[in-house]
Structure prediction request, 357 residues.
Amino acid sequence: MQPVRVENLVKQYGALRALDGVSLAVEAGELFFLLGPSGCGKTTLLRAIAGFVPPDAGRIEIGGRDATRMPPQARNTGMVFQSYALWPHLTVRENVAFGLRLQALPRAERDARVDEALAVVRIADQAGKKPNQLSGGQQQRVALARALVIRPACLLLDEPLSNLDAKLRAEMRGEIRRICKASGLTAIYVTHDQKEALAIADRIAVMRAGQIEQLGPPRRLYHHPVNRFVADFLGHTNFLRGRVTGAAAGDRVVVATPVGPLHARADGAPPAGEVLLGIRPEALSRRHAAEVNVFEARVTAVSYLGEVTQYDLATEGGEPRALAALELNAGEEVLAEGARVRWHVAPEHVMLLPAED
Prediction:
């Protein structure tokens, strides 16, 4: 359980600045996510921490030691790859023991540590099988056990669930968090799947163009994004451009928008002039007794998604992007296309964002 520090890390590939002065601190025992679209620099950052990509500038510390120029094998990190990278001719036990053989540990200690790792990932009963006899989820557990058995200072995971189907991915999310917490590991996890990150991360760094846009706990990032990019990447968001026209009760401001005046929360000093409002689809409701933040919209499409129904909405404001609403399917009457409905959003669920983003 050791911390990881990155200070002003830079990596250039020709004209492409893959990492542009990235700094972050991962606390000991933390499950930390690097999240962002393809090409944002998250995998380059992970590989730089692992020692596979030498940075052009900056510093990397692992457990208080300067690891910037250390070779990968000297950093005491465990890596779990997207492809699993299991030896097909070796059994599960032999795959897990491979790293320990390179360390020339005594046979008794090696066997004990392999047994411990297999027990942690709950795959001891498959120890004698070859990888091609296992399911995708079982192969992922073997890859995790192989990384855990060397008792790394930090576990690095590069999109480890991307090869699994949706149901298995959801199951393995919880397992990975359980394994990391049970082992007391510091873990850095790369993904582009925002649901994966929101579900199990202690903290998330959202990246774009080689820089960190925002860093914090999942709930903070989801409900208090700093700009349009973060709000749009972490879940679905309706956006409305507007202009602040005054203050309301408490820490709220009134914003003139194409759907009428809306009250929004102001996190910090109230802004003035042009702003962008963000409203999550699940924040819109057609059951209300409010006098503010109510507007009418016509249902243009209905999508049944199992546990929820999604409505695409058109307003008189002529917004180029239709609004959307989500409702839990818990006995509520499903609206028909063409229905005109009054929708409400609570002021605390209206996000005030910079207009220039």
